[in-house]
Fold this protein.
Amino acid sequence: MIKMMKNKILIIGVLTLMGAPLFSASLDELVGPDRARALGEAVITEVQLKTPKPVLLPNHGELQRIIEETQADLGSGIFVESLHRYQKPAGAAQPVWSDAERTELYNRALALSTLAGIQYYSTSRKTMRTFYETSQVIDGPNTKRALKDPVFAEPPASLTLYARQKDITFGDNIYQYDYRAGEDALILIQQNLTAMTAFLFPAVGKNKLRSVIAVIDAEDSLLIYVATMAKTASLPGLGERAAPLSGLGERISNSFTSRTEAILKWFTGQADKAF
């Protein structure tokens, strides 16, 4: 026991000298032991309509605050959550991510150009399709001049980027990306700055879409939480009770589910490159 305590003190001392965070929460602490066991390497997804309430949200104060504030701003609507455990490779820093790993993950999340060409599964067509046809960082929502993906030597506590992205369902739109960098988590928040149409119909009004990606350090893993929230236009199949869905409403709901899962897959691919 004394030897274990000395080893723990030694680890904390080394991490302090390196400027790294001293600890990270375990999966059990973040999502509870039952869900931690259920995660394994799988993805858990929940879809709710009209009366959304998070059911997969990790026990993380900053992330919980962001989701609560976003829901209060948007009101009821489509709410899709996905939760994934990403196993760190054997060579990763333990027991917490290193400054270098955290910075690399942050820069990978800034690489919005890499969203171009990602694929999603179309439930209506029963095949894989391109999600974003184009994706690029721009200097602002008005001038729209293309920029290179930014790279930082150290993640700033907060950062706002703008991007122009054309996706196969909602067309060519301008988005705002807000980044939050904490010692134990990186959080990305996307919102639409232009109204979105789907299948030639109004679908989501300006500032009525939010996609949140949270990457939380969890000892030997990364816990990745993705939520897509949208206040949709009045559409067939999205009535007061939102059931049963049919026609256009069902297609849009499926599209948001695919959006969430595609973003999750994109980030896990970015994590593969970071470690």
Observations:
- The helical segments are 2-18, 27-31, 33-39, 61-74, 99-110, 247-274.
- Residues 1-20, 235-246 have pLDDT under 50 and may be disordered.
- The chain has one domain: 22-274.
- Residues 22-274 form a domain with the Alpha-D-Glucose-1,6-Bisphosphate; Chain A, domain 4 fold (CATH 3.30.530.20).
